[in-house]
Structures are given as structure tokens and as C-alpha cells.
Design goal:
two-stranded antiparallel sheet; 8 helices; alpha/beta; about 20% strand
């Protein structure tokens, strides 16, 4: 009976999609721990504050030893200082409106990438996929592709479907590299859209300010990292800590994410 039980269990696993290859892939990546003490170090890497066990750093930085490391990738826009690289190597991947580049109005030096066609998504995916694989080789545990919501700043040239198609490619590359992948913002995604895209957890900026935390909770439960910023005042951070600080990872940072050497540096956790 024991042999029959093992055979039946294996057959059932294959039928429902949890066969050996799927199990191996799932086991090769893990989610950030819920309700952890986190830091968000995109303005430059520095020694982890006491108690921090989860940290996000730019893909150009080294992961922190002894912590769960999330690799930040600007996946839907150009990083400041990189526009000339895109111009030289992949000019067709830059979004244009009547011949003019479409910038992000909130961040100087960032131009939207054009996800509107399969070919352009393939070009962008080749670049971003290489960065994601490097994150894995460098020892990161997860990847955070930023600016999923670039379609909302695209003068209606891009759609949510365009960006989700690109995100699906990023998720496949991340999972193949053994990395979990975060949904960054875009609280309006439905449960089906997040599942089709392949996201594993969420990084939510200012969800307390914009009353979006419930949308992330409905999909990801405790697997949300919330980042609030001091230029909104500290009340949103304190409300978040009081409301769900015992189940989520929540951090308060200065908007420019400075290092401790700056007098404007701010870091607090619940």
C-alpha cells in the first residue's frame, strides 16, 4: 500500500502542476519574511541598521551579508544617467510622442521605455533579463522591477496590458534565475492580472497616503513591504504601524533615499 500511495501522490502532483520541475523551481526561490525589519537603500548602500533583515539595493550594488536582498531594477524607464546608453544601443526602445521622448514628469532624467509592441518588449526584455540574471549571480534573493505604472504617464501611448506583458517576461527570467519578483506599486491590478504576470510579493510605496494598502493585502496578505516617505509627514507612517505594523514590513525613508552621511537622511521602522 505504501508503494501505491507514493505512486498515486506523484501522479496527482503531475496532474495539478506540482511535478518535479515545478517543485524544484518553487524551492529555488523564497519570499522575503513577513513583518521583517526592512531598509530601502536606493540612494547608496550602507551598513544595515540594527535589526534589519531585509534590504532593497540597486542592481549595481552588492547584496548585504546575512540579509534577504532585493535587487532594484528600473525596468520600464531609463535610470538617470543611462539615457545615452539606450540612445546608442536601443534607440527604438525609447517611447516617443510625435518624435519627442516621453519623460517621467516626476523624476528628472528618466524616459519611458516603449512596451507597445512585441518586438520592442523583446528588445527591452533582453536588456532587463540580463540585469535580472546578474542580480541572481550576485547573490540577491529577489528582484523589484520599478515603474510598472509607466503607462499612466505615457500620454496614452502605452496600456496596462503592454506593461503586464513585459512584466510576465521579467517574472519568467527572475524565476529561472531562482529569484522571487515583486509587484512594485500599481495597486489597481486585479488578482488575475497579478497571477498572470507572475508576481510573488509586493513593494508598495505610500499605500497609506493613497489609501491603497487594502488592495495589496487582498492579494498578497502579509507579503507586502510598505515604504512611506517623510515629505508626506510622519502621520501616514504612524497610522500604518498602528494599523498593520504587526503583520507587514514597513519603513519610513526620506524621499531621496539618502545615506546616513547626509543630514537629510531618515530611517525608521515599526
Amino acid at each position: 500500500m505504501h508503494g501505491m500511495s507514493v505512486w498515486f501522490t506523484a501522479l496527482l502532483a503531475l496532474l495539478i502542476g506540482f511535478g518535479p520541475s515545478a517543485t524544484a523551481e518553487s524551492a529555488s526561490r523564497h519570499l522575503p519574511p513577513a513583518n521583517a525589519t526592512v531598509d530601502y537603500q536606493l540612494g547608496g548602500a550602507y551598513r544595515l541598521p540594527p535589526g534589519v533583515t531585509v534590504v532593497t539595493r540597486d542592481r549595481t550594488e552588492a547584496p548585504a551579508k546575512g540579509a534577504y536582498n532585493i535587487c532594484y531594477v528600473n525596468a520600464f524607464q531609463t535610470q538617470p544617467g543611462s539615457l545615452s546608453w539606450w540612445h546608442h544601443h536601443h534607440p527604438g526602445a525609447l517611447l516617443r510622442d510625435k518624435g519627442r521622448l516621453v519623460p517621467d514628469p516626476g523624476w528628472r532624467g528618466e524616459v519611458l521605455l516603449d512596451t507597445s509592441t512585441r518586438h520592442r518588449r523583446q528588445v527591452i526584455g533582453t536588456v532587463i533579463g540580463r540585469w535580472i540574471r546578474t542580480c541572481g549571480k550576485d547573490g540577491f534573493d529577489a528582484v523589484e522591477p520599478d515603474n510598472l505604472d509607466s503607462y499612466s504617464r505615457s500620454h496614452h501611448l502605452l496600456t496596462k496590458a503592454d506593461n503586464l506583458a513585459a512584466a510576465r517576461r521579467f517574472a519568467k527570467d527572475a524565476h529561472a534565475a531562482g529569484l522571487a519578483i515583486a509587484q512594485k506599486n500599481s495597486a489597481e491590478l486585479t488578482r488575475r492580472q497579478h497571477r498572470v504576470a507572475g508576481f510573488d510579493f509586493a513593494v508598495a510605496e505610500e499605500c497609506q497616503v493613497w489609501h491603497e494598502c487594502g488592495a495589496y493585502r487582498a492579494i498578497y496578505g502579509k507579503h507586502v513591504i510598505e515604504v512611506e516617505y517623510t515629505d508626506n509627514g510622519r502621520h501616514a507612517f504612524h497610522r500604518a504601524c498602528s494599523d498593520h505594523g504587526r503583520s507587514w514590513s514597513i519603513v519610513l525613508r526620506d524621499r531621496m533615499l539618502r545615506t546616513p552621511s547626509s543630514s537629510h537622511y531618515t530611517y525608521r521602522s515599526c
